[in-house]
Amino acid sequence: MPPSIRWIPLALVLGCTPAAAPTPTQPRPAPAPPLTHIDEAQAEAYFAEAAQLFARDGGQLWGVRLDGPILILDPETRQVAANQKDAQGKLAARDHIFTGHVGDEVSPANSALDWAGVRWTEVMWPLPEDAPARKRLLAHEAFHRQQPALHLPMEGNDGNAHLDALEGRILLQLEWRALKKAVLEQGARRQEAIEDALVFRARRREIFPLAAQEERALEMNEGLAEYTGNTLASDSPAERRVVATQLLDNGTAKPSFVRSFAYASGPAYGLLLDEAGARWRRSLAPGSDLGALLAQATGARLPPKLEAGHRVPPAARDRRMGRIDRVDGCPSLRRLDDRHGIRPRRSSRPPFARRRLDTAARSRMDTRAGRAQRRFHPRRPALTYLQASSSPVFHWQPLAQT
Fold it and tell me: What are phi and psi of 190, to 5 degrees?
């Protein structure tokens, strides 16, 4: 046997390889840390800003202090930052704030929140970059946190479908235009504009039986909260007026008024009540109505039988309102509502609510309709608020057919 073959290891002949030396067990990788998007330094600055805002109020506005627990929630990562610890030890202290993560039991929203044994003012990250808007948001949600202490329930989120109907939308925008004029005017002109706003408000509630109840519920919830935000965040009465008129203007751009109208109406009514010298906030109850409070505070008078909640037969109502069947060949508001209902049909001719009117057409409309309107509103025609320059008279989009 050749020497080179004689010494071949048996293991190689059998096709085996020596066993590898045992290696230590590899450690499992550590779980990835939770995602974080909240800038903790920025959150701490927001908490300090809120503390300063509420300290300046000192509980004077509502008789209760609005400062308290604030929870900032990032809806994407579920990370939270708070200005104080919770009652169940779920948050960890980091410098001057407390951080952690929440589960699916917490819904991301700008609202009031009961979580971990504490009632929080909850706001979503990122907060508005504009400082006045950010302060309005913090004060708005702080009011919601204190609503139980004020015996004002958080309700009104259901209902108000009439504000997506043609006549409901138009009469609401008429009310807003009159409120804007009242905010900007003083003296007799303000008084006239207030009465106009209350007339349009009462007219809407004549037409829709549940309007008064449903509108009041949302105004006493979101309307008062937005009023609180504007009052505390504004540095002067002039700034409050500017913001109130901006909210009224911005409200018309909403595709639906059902849930949004109180954010525009509330600050305007609250400002007018304050400037009328009324002591109205401490006596509020869930059944209070901002329009009725303003009428009482200013001595505003409505035409006979046009108080909120009073039902009038359609024929008598239309005679008093001065409705006419056609104006310059264009169907009247009542005829449009009768023909189209809540889901108006599309037609080749733009409805009255969206027709563009030149100066001469507006003048003829005001002159002809004014004679009939004076029986309803002797001081001047209500069509004053219908006039517009080159834009549609109202923002209204017919609903798709079902």
Answer: -65, -45
The span from the CA of 27 to the CA of 214, in Å, is 62
Distances (CA, A) of 350 to 82, 323, 356, 398: 53, 19, 9, 11
Would you state the structure tokens that stand for residue 190, as one six-digit string?
Answer: 């303000």
Q: DSSP 3-state assignment of 43?
A: helix
Positive/negative CA dihedral, 311, 315, 319, 321 = positive
Tell me the residue ranges of DSSP E strands in 107-147: 111-115, 118-124
Task: Round the average pLDDT of the chain to a whole number and report it.
Answer: 78
Confidence (pLDDT) at 24: 55
Q: Tell me the domain boundaries of the chain.
A: 40-149, 161-298, 322-386
| pLDDT value, residue 258 | 95
Q: Is 24 exposed, middle or buried (0-12, 13-18, 19+ CB in 10 A)?
A: exposed
Q: What is the pLDDT of residues 171-190, one digit of tens each?
A: 999 999 999 999 999 999 99
